[in-house]
Design brief:
Helices cover 57% and strands 20% of the residues. It has eight helices and eight strands, in the order H-E-E-E-E-E-E-E-H-H-H-H-E-H-H-H. The longest helix has 80 residues.
Length: 323
């Protein structure tokens, strides 16, 4: 009888110890209550709290968690109906507050994010809701995180997953985008045409400038050539005049032959003359050319012949007796 009693007491002691030991998993915290009043928090690992006197109140997940926001119908400031949904990432930092400051943490977070999502997006135009997602996320994060601070919760991220405008608005936006792209294409084409015309005009202007400079250079060269030709002609005339004064007939023949050849060249190049008549004898031209040749020889040989101005005395005619 005594043995059975001892065994019963030992079994009850082991069972009491078993219920007094609390093993908390990593990433979780348990609130410990003493007769229904919160006293402490059980950390991850081995914990011993006497059974029947202390009990686990709430098992709180301390890891970062995510809540999926269901689709919401929202009316924007310009009276456009859109559908949107999103996700919220949060983490419990204070287990007692998350356990005792709010009745249902997940339901409270879901309702809080939903109402603030309607408030934020309802104060914006349709174009702003479609183009300013980062601004919407930032405003939601600020508002919700400030509201959940008394609950010991940190809102880490709020992300809008999708924004779905009505079908008619989507079609209107597609037409608007097409018209805008066509407008840009026409503007770019007009700018390209204008640039092409400007470049073409600049090219023509530069060509005319270069042509004018070429004509100026050509006129300058022609004037210089004429000046040199006139100087050469004057020098040649001076030399011929000196030779004539010296009494050289070849110089006079050269001068006459030059004018003669120029006159014959003008006859030959006349556009109206089909038949050319020379009222001179060919021997005159040959003799003149012979004088030119003799003059050229004298100049090439460097021989300067001095001719006295007085005419030479006539030779005596030999006497031939008559029969």
């Amino acid at each position: 009888m005594l043995t059975a009693l001892l065994l019963t007491i030992a079994a009850l002691a082991v069972l009491y110890l078993f219920f007094s030991i609390k093993i908390v998993r990593q990433g979780h915290q348990y609130t410990i209550e003493h007769f229904g009043r919160f006293t402490t928090v059980a950390k991850p690992g081995f914990n011993f709290y006497p059974a029947f006197f202390y009990q686990v109140g709430r098992r709180v997940n301390m890891m970062e968690q995510v809540i999926d926001i269901p689709g919401q119908e929202i009316i924007t400031r310009d009276n456009a109906m859109i559908s949107t949904d999103g996700v919220v990432f949060f983490q419990v930092l204070d287990a007692p507050k998350a356990a005792y400051e709010v009745s249902d943490l997940y339901l409270a977070l879901l309702n809080l994010v939903t109402t603030n999502l309607r408030t934020v997006m309802g104060a914006m135009d349709l174009d702003e809701t479609l183009s300013k997602r980062d601004e919407i996320n930032a405003r939601l994060l600020s508002v919700v995180d400030h509201a959940t601070t008394p609950w010991g919760v940190k809102i880490t991220r709020v992300e809008i997953k999708d924004i779905r405008p009505p079908a008619d608005i989507v079609n209107a936006m597609a037409r608007q985008m097409k018209a805008e792209r066509e407008k840009r294409a026409n503007i770019l084409e007009a700018e390209g045409t204008r640039a092409s015309e400007i470049l073409r005009a600049e090219g023509q202007k530069q060509a005319r400038i270069l042509e004018a400079e070429g004509r100026r250079e050509s006129a300058y060269r022609d004037a210089e050539a004429r000046e040199r030709a006139a100087e050469a002609e004057a020098k040649a005339t001076e030399l011929v005049s000196r030779a004539i004064e010296a009494g050289s007939p070849q110089s006079l023949n050269y001068f006459i032959a030059q004018k003669y050849v120029e006159a014959v060249g003008k006859f030959a190049t006349s556009p109206n003359a089909k038949t050319i008549l020379f009222p001179v004898e060919a021997t005159q031209l040959i003799g003149t050319l012979g004088g030119i040749g003799e003059l050229a020889k004298e100049v090439a040989g460097g021989v300067t012949t001095r001719i006295e101005r007085d005419p030479p005395a006539p030779r005596p005619t030999p006497f031939v007796p008559r029969d």
